[in-house]
Amino acid sequence: MIENWLKKDIERTYNRGRNRFVLIDPHRDFYFLLDTLPDSWVRIEAHTDTDEIKAKSEAEKKYSEKNVLFYTTIQREKLKFLREYCETNGYLELTNAHNYIKEKVHEHTGLNLNLSKEELLTAAQAGIGQLKSYWIDLCHRGSDVIFDLQKMLLPFLHNPVEYAHQFHPQVRKAFLEKVQKYIGQTPIEKEETIIAREVIEFIFDGLLTSNIDQVFIDILRQWLDSHTYSDSLTNYKSNYHTPENIDIWSVNISHPFPEIDLRQLRAVCDKMYSEEINESWKKYIINRSNDRIAMMIGVSWWTDVLTILNFDHPELSLLNNISELSDYYVKNIYHLDRAIRHLYTKFLNHKEIIKPLQEKYESLLKEFFDKWFAYFESYQGQQQGYLEKIINEKDDKIAIIVCDGLTYEIALCVSDSVDKSVKTKSGYIIAEIPSTTENNMSNLFGMGSEITSVKSRREEYLKNSMPEINIGFVELDEVNQTHSEYDVLICSHRDIDDIGEKMQQGALKYFENLINLLSEKITDLKRIGYKTVHLVTDHGFVLIGSMDESDKVTIDLKGKGKIYERYVLTDLPQK
Which of 62, 314, 382, 463 minimizes the number of CB atoms within 10 Å of its CB? Predict the structure, then answer.
C-alpha cells in the first residue's frame, strides 16, 4: 500500500503536465520502493554534483517527452543542477521518511501509528503489496503484525540467504531478530543459514517431544504440500538424526519421520506374539493413521495394521450355511484381504514386521475357513452360463470384462476408482470347483461339461449359442473407438493371473497399475457407447506372503489320488 501512496504523490506532478520529479531520500530509506514504481517512468539517480549534471543532460537530450524521476540523496537546499526541477515541476523530500509513513497512514485510515522509526521503516518494506487492512492492524496491534511468520517462515527456511537479502538491511536485521525470538532465543547477529538450521532443529526437536505449537505443524504441512519448497525439507530431514533413546510413543503424531513409524510398528509386532497391544499405543496409531502429514510422507499403512489388530468375528458363530458365510465374507473378510495385500506390498522384505501380521491374518482366516468347510458339502457353483444370463437380461449395448484372476476386494478397488460420473454396484457369484481357469472360464461361457483351455473355442461357443446378437471379442488393452459397433463386447483380460504366475510375490507392486487400467477401460467403454459394463472373473487368487521351509506341508494321501497346483483329487475321503 505504501508504494501506491508514493506513486500517487508523484503522479500529481505528471498529471499537471510536468514531466520531471525529484525524489529526495537522504538516508535511502525509500530506495526499496523504486522498483515498485511504473516501468514507463525513466529513473535516473544522482548523488553527486557530477551526477546532477549528467542526469539533467541525459533527461533533456534523451527523454524530453517522457516522465523522468530523479532519485537523489542530496538535500534540496544543496542541489545545484536539479534544484530548478524542484521549483518548476515537483519534488518530495524524505529527510524524515518515517513521518511520511505516519502521515499517509493517518490520511488513509484516520488512525495513528505508535511505532518507532525503525519499526515504521520495517513495516513499510514488509507492507509492499499489502492491503489497507495491514496498516489498520498495525495501528491496533502494533509491531507484531509487521512480519507474518506463518507466511514468511517457509520461504525463508527454503532459501535463507536469498529471502533475507530481498529486504533493506535494517528490515533484514529486524526480520532475523523476530525469527530468533519466535523460537525462544535472545537475538544476536548470526548468518541466515545458521538461524534457519536452528529453526528446523527447534521444530524437529519439538515434534519428538510433542512440545510444539500448532503454528509450526501448519508450516510443516504447507512445506510438505509445496512443489516449490518440498526439496529443501528433504535436505533438512536428511541432515537431522532422530535420537535412538527417544520415547517413540511421545512423538507428536504430525511428525515427518517415517523411521519412527517403523520403530513403532516393530514394537507392535514384537508384542503380538506375547501379549495384548497397549491401548495407549492403539490410540496413538488411530490418531496417526488419520494424520495428514503421515499421509503426505507415504505412511498410509497404519490403517491396514489397525484392520488386522482390531478385527473380530462376533457374528461368525451365528452363521449356518455357505450363503450366509459368503455374505459375511463380502461384508467383513475382504477388509482383511485388502489390508494384508497392502502390507505385503510394503513390508514383504521386512520379515520381522510381516511375519507377525501375516500370522495374525492367517489365524483370523482360519476361524472363518473352519466354519466354511463345515458346510462345504452344500457348496454349489453359480458360474455355468453366467455370460449368457447377463446378455439375455440386457436392455441396451453392454460390455463384459472377463478377468482371469480377480479378487472381490480388488474388484471393489476398481469400482471405487472409476470416474465419479459412472454409477457402480457390486455383487458376487459362487465359483465352480475345481477353481481352475479352463474349468471356470468354460462354465462362464456356458459350455456345460465341455471343458477347454482354448479361449477362441469358448468365444466361438458363446457366439454360436446366441446367433441373433452381434457379439464382439477383444483384448481389454486393445479397446478403442472402432469397437463400438457391437451389441455385446466381450473384453478378455488375463494380466493378473499371468503376472501372478510369472512373478509370484513380485506381482504385488503391479496391482495398483492393474486397478487403474481396469477403471480407465470401464470409463472408455462407457464413452464409446456401452451403457453398462460388467466386470466378472473366473476365480480369485491367494497371496502367499512370507514363507519359510517350515511353513510348507507334505500331503499324505489316503488311497489313490493326484495332487494338482490348486486342488487334490482322491478316491477316498481325507481327514
Answer: 314
**CA atoms of 316 and 480, how far apart (whole Å):** 46
- What is the C-alpha separation between 449 and 471, in angstroms, rounded? 23
Phi and psi, residue 153, nearest 5°: -65, -40
Spatial distance between the Cα atoms of 499 and 69, rounded to a whole number of angstroms: 73
pLDDT tens-place string over residues 83-125: 999 999 999 999 888 898 899 888 888 888 888 888 888 888 8
> What is the CB neighbour count within 10 angstroms for residue 550?
6
Provide the grid cell at 4: 501506491
CB 72 within 8 A of CB 44: no
Element (H, E) at 71: strand 68-72
Tens of pLDDT, residue by residue over 412-471, are: 999 999 988 899 999 999 999 988 999 999 999 999 889 999 999 999 999 999 999 999
Range 314-345 burial, b when 16+ CB lie within 10 A, else e:
eebeebeebeebbebbeebbbebbbbbbbbbb
* 298: confidence class by pLDDT, cuts 50, 70, 90: very high
Beta-ladder partners of 402: 492, 536
Residue 23 has pLDDT above 90, yes or no: yes
Q: How many CA atoms lie within 13 A of 384 on its CB side?
A: 9
Q: In three state form, how does the secondary structure of 149-204 look?
A: HHHHHHHHHHCHHHHHCCCCHHHHHHHHHHHHHHCCCCCCCCCHHHHHHHHHHHHH
Query: In the predicted model, what is the mean pLDDT of residues 397-404?
Result: 96
Say which residue the cell 514531466 belongs to. 19
Q: Which residues lie closer than 8 Å to 92 by C-beta, 6 or more apart?
A: 6, 9, 10, 21, 22, 23, 24, 100
Residue 544: helix, strand or coil by DSSP? coil
> Average pLDDT over the chain, rounded to whole?
90
Which of these ranges, 306-310, 522-526, 564-568, has the smallest mean pLDDT? 564-568
How far is Cα of residue 387 from the mean position of the Cα atoms in its chain? Answer: 40
Peptide bond before residue 169 is cis, with ω within 30 degrees of 0: no
Q: Report the alpha-carbon distance of residue 489 to residue 525 in Å, rounded.
A: 9
pLDDT attached to residue 497: 61
C-alpha cell at 189: 547477529
Q: Longest Cα pair distance anywhere in the chain, in angstroms?
A: 121
Q: Which of 330, 335, 311, 308 is nearest to 319 (CA)?
A: 330
Residue 549, pLDDT above cutoff 80: no
| 453 touches 462 (CB < 8 A) | no
Among 65-69, 194-198, 374-378, 551-555, the range with the most confident prediction by mean pLDDT is 194-198
Cβ–Cβ < 8 Å for 233, 256 = yes
Q: Is the previous residue joined to 434 through a cis bond, with omega within 30 degrees of 0? A: yes
Determine the average pLDDT of the residues in 155-168: 91
Segment 314-318 long-range contacts (CB within 8 Å, at least 24 positions apart)? 316/367, 316/368, 316/371
The answer to whether 155 touches 132, Cβ cutoff 8 Å, is no
* Alpha-carbon gap, residue 266 to 185, rounded angstroms: 37
